[in-house]
Amino acid sequence: MKRLKNTFYSFLFLCGFFISFAQNITVDEGFTPQYLVNDILVNSSCANVLNVSVSGGNFASGEKSFGFFDATGTSFPFQNGIVLSTGKIVNAQGPNATLSDDGGNMGWDGDPDLNQALGLSNSFNATILEFDFVPLGNKISFDYIFSSEQYLLNPSSGQCNFTDGFVFLLRRNGDLNYQNLAVVPNTNIPVKVNTVRGAGTICPPANESYFDAFNDINHPTNFNGQTKVLTASSDVIPGETYHIKLVIADEGNHRFDSAIFLGGGSFNFGIDIGDDRLIATGNPLCPNETLTVDATQIGATSYQWFQDTNLILGATNPTFDITTAGDYLVEINYGASCQTTGTIKVEYAEALVLNQNSFTECDADNNQDGITTFNLDAIRGQLFTNLPANYIVSFFESQTSTSSLPSNYTNTNPDSETIYARIMNIQGCYTDFPINLTINTFDEILVDETVGLCENGIITLDAGSGFSTYLWNTNPPQFTQEISVTSGGTYEVILTNALNCSKTKTFTVETSSIAFIEEIIINDFQENNSATVQIATSSLGDYEFSLDGINYQDSNVFLNLQPGEYIVYVQDKKGCGISFESFYILDYPKFFTPNGDGYNDTWTIKNLDKRNLQNNIISVFDRYGKLLKQFVGLGEGWNGTFNGSALPATDYWFEMKLENGKSLKGHFALKR
């Protein structure tokens, strides 16, 4: 149930009654039904209205649920008219300060025709205005506003389906079924609180373009909300008798009144001279097209045509040829005192001027196969010089296709393809426009390069010849085939070919330098002698190593070295120079033959001076550890004797004391 309006509103209403009264509608219950229809609703000398009747609430106070309203000087859209309510119409007067909630417990029934039209079985408090009429023209229409207390600004979730119902029922005499004219425009949906409602509450909006507003206290009526001005209309047959029945009723119970305001003088017996020809509805006239409009009516005595409210001189025939856009009206006179009108609005489709219909893209991926993606949204904006904003352009693979292409379209035919642009919302004025798509390729193969730059050096980067333009990512940019650089980094050049397609080539410049040999670590006196070349961490290059200056290896370790002198060469792979340094591999003899032949008669370790070991003491022992001889590295060595006596052929051991406190030990054989 809807909450009662704030009593503060009632206080404001009482305080401001005399000031604000003129800003609110007033009602008058004193007019007869015949007068309400003939003089208020229709108000036309052409009207032939019969059998008018009104029924509504039988209030004990004598007040009525129908009557005349006057809105002169207020913000209400109608100046005057008829109001039909599910309560007392006196309570429809503004401001919106009290709850209009009449008709309870008084045996006020609903209406079976309304129930049938809306699919209800529980209507109450029906107010009914009905009459017969004979139309002169082929169309009738009238304007109305639906207002209701059930347009709640702060409803609970259970109140979103609260609504009252109303119908405008029309049928030709002799027909069995009514047609309901009170529907949402261009639909069959009956107008009710929950079918026409604005946003802003917890209840979902519905057809909100037809909703006017939720009202505060200052509204000219005493209702919480209302629709905009809506028009009920129908085609009719001139000269036939029709019955119209206007009904409003509460749904479910008597609570929360609603009302229908019928605009005074809005019941129009008009002439339908054809549908409007509008761009918005997709049926404008095509450029240079002529539309012949026929307003011929039986019994008419004269015709006069107008364009944009201006009289068209000489246009007094029933038919008229329209050749320019405008709002056209024809006045049709039936004698001296009766006149009807027909209107038609005509717009012309723009004569489109083609700006461009050929578009070229470069193949964007690495596979230069002439297949790429086109942005059809961008193409759409370049097609015509004068495309109106409300024209809808779509693209199709062929002139018979019905499925439009996506915005990002990938061609299916390599190198070139034709698609078609179609104006979608204007039918019959334009043939499809062929759009030529061309795909250029960049066939040159680019290979990224990594090059070395020697310390404090300069190098030239060559992007290759045969391109139209060059763009390097240097600061500032450079535009030549070759550039010179003095620092490492990544250099990119955008190359553009004769077809205006581009690719990027990347040069990675790595700074390098000649090697600084920090140390050669020698591991000798072994079965597998080796040397490891250590390069200083300050050296920037990528190096390779050699012992002959010819054959190089990536490893800095050399294995299986025989005793002797070596030169190690360290070469920068990027050409920044070669460093070299000599080293010695030492070893002790594994045997000697002291036989006096002058060859290998003594045992010693040669070349100790090459490693600065010449002053180390070498001791020789027999197998039992007995010291047999001591000599310095540069001494004559041991001749195989002890105390002048030759020792037997067998194995002997040695030890060489090193300056770092360590010692080198081994054994050798004496042979005779």
UniProtKB/TrEMBL annotation:
<keyword id="KW-0732">Signal</keyword>
<feature type="signal peptide">
    <location>
        <begin position="1"/>
        <end position="22"/>
    </location>
</feature>
<protein>
    <submittedName>
        <fullName>Gliding motility-associated C-terminal domain-containing protein</fullName>
    </submittedName>
</protein>
<dbReference type="InterPro" id="IPR026341">
    <property type="entry name" value="T9SS_type_B"/>
</dbReference>
<dbReference type="Pfam" id="PF13585">
    <property type="entry name" value="CHU_C"/>
</dbReference>
<dbReference type="InterPro" id="IPR049804">
    <property type="entry name" value="Choice_anch_L"/>
</dbReference>
